């Protein structure tokens, strides 16, 4: 009796201690991430300050207004931004796996997920806030993940949002299949075999489909085809969210050494800006609509399954792209790449037709070195996510 109570007390104390420790660690990681972001982007803020205030171009009040308009405008997120960002970074899924205690021997776990580099942890908290605080945020290595699993949260909060603000990419089809599966799960308190077969038919073309084992167990399935995406007007807030997920701001530099004479070695420098949005080739039509939206840029298909919206003409970047993001600010940590992009644009503009000096080129390279540090990591993450879909 006493030994049992001691063990039970030890178990509860240990459980409480682990829970409290976990909360402390999560809070610590969150705060450290914010501090790291501030530290990593301090040089950008400093040069932004020099460019817009210390140079005498604007007064301090105007400087604060300009910088805050790009980074601190409003902690709340626009509904269209949520949809655009989900078109870029979100996923809808139904995990199906064996479970002995369930009626049919299979368990269904619906989920909505956004997985990002840890530097964008704060945007996940803001997305969670937008959805009323439902869902959980977890950490794994250098990534953070926001996920909604609870059926009532999916039915009452998640689905109504995407019905009111529909997705524009082919991800709309994933959502529509997901939504129909959720309705079946909701309406059947105890899932029948007929209901399970309906779900398998819907799940067949969702993400990576169903397992070979399920195909063998249910050989007479009639898969539901993926729905077509209805064309909807591109809203600027949607586009900002989409670019927060899939866009990039780049500086391209070329240093070329040449010899005009055996004893004379000269160096020439070239610098240009490049704005790009990358998406799966199945969304080529949408990318072409973005060209129409901006009235500039072009769409280029790669040898892989990717397609790019590209723009590197300086006058168009200066007069269309930069003003667009000043009016509709980026919400993710990508805003700091954009600020570096502006800084480089001002350096380029100040030069006009004059040749680059080694010092100026070094300055541009310094700006360049602080940009897009996480793009490769995020691309690797997406490849991992694609390979894990349907498992």
UniProtKB/TrEMBL annotation:
Q: What is the protein name stated in its UniProt record? A: Dod ND1 i4 grp IB protein a
- Enumerate the UniProt keywords alphabetically: Membrane, Mitochondrion, Transmembrane, Transmembrane helix
Q: Name one GO molecular function term.
A: endonuclease activity
In this protein, which residues make up the domain named Homing endonuclease LAGLIDADG? 82-181, 239-344
The organism's taxonomy opens as: Eukaryota, Fungi, Dikarya, Ascomycota, Pezizomycotina
Q: Which GO terms describe its cellular component?
A: mitochondrion
| SUPFAM superfamilies xrefs | Homing endonucleases (SSF55608)
What are the transmembrane regions?
A: 7-30
Entry-linked Pfam families: LAGLIDADG_1 (PF00961)
Q: Per its UniProt record, what Gene3D superfamilies does this chain match?
A: Homing endonucleases
The record's annotation in InterPro entries points to: Homing_endonucl, LAGLIDADG_dom, LAGLIDADG_Endonuclease
């Amino acid at each position: 009796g006493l030994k049992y109570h001691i063990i039970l007390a030890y178990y509860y104390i240990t459980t409480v201690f682990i829970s409290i420790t976990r909360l402390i660690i999560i809070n610590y990681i969150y705060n450290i991430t914010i501090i790291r972001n501030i530290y990593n982007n301090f040089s950008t803020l400093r040069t932004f300050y020099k460019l817009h205030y210390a140079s005498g171009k604007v007064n301090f009040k105007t400087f604060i207004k300009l910088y805050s308009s790009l980074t601190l405008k409003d902690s709340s997120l626009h509904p269209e931004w949520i949809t655009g960002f989900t078109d870029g970074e979100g996923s809808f899924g139904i995990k199906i796996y064996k479970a002995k205690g369930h009626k049919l021997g299979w368990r269904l776990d619906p989920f909505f997920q956004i997985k990002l580099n840890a530097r964008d942890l704060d945007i996940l908290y803001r997305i969670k806030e937008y959805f009323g605080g439902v869902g959980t945020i977890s950490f794994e290595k250098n990534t953070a993940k926001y996920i909604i699993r609870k059926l009532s949260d999916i039915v009452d909060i998640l689905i109504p949002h995407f019905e009111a603000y529909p997705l524009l990419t082919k991800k709309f089809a994933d959502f529509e299949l997901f939504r129909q599966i959720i309705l079946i799960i909701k309406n059947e308190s105890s899932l029948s075999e007929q209901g399970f077969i309906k779900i398998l038919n819907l799940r067949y073309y969702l993400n990576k489909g169903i397992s070979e084992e399920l195909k063998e167990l249910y050989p007479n399935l009639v898969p539901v085809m993926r729905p077509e995406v209805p064309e909807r007007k591109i809203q600027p807030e949607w586009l900002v969210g989409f670019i927060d997920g899939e866009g990039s701001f780049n500086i391209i530099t070329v240093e070329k050494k040449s010899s005009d004479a055996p004893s004379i070695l000269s160096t020439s420098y070239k610098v240009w800006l490049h704005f790009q949005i990358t998406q799966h080739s199945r969304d080529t039509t949408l990318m072409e609509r973005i060209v129409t939206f901006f009235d500039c840029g072009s769409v280029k298909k790669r040898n892989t399954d990717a397609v790019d919206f590209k723009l590197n003409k300086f006058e168009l970047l200066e007069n269309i792209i930069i003003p667009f993001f000043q009016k509709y600010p980026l919400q993710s940590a990508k805003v700091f790449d954009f600020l570096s992009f502006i800084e480089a644009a001002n350096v380029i503009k100040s030069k006009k037709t004059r040749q680059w000096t080694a010092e100026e080129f070094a300055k541009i390279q310094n700006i360049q070195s602080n940009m897009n540090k996480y793009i490769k990591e995020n691309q690797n993450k997406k490849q991992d996510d694609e390979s894990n879909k349907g498992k």
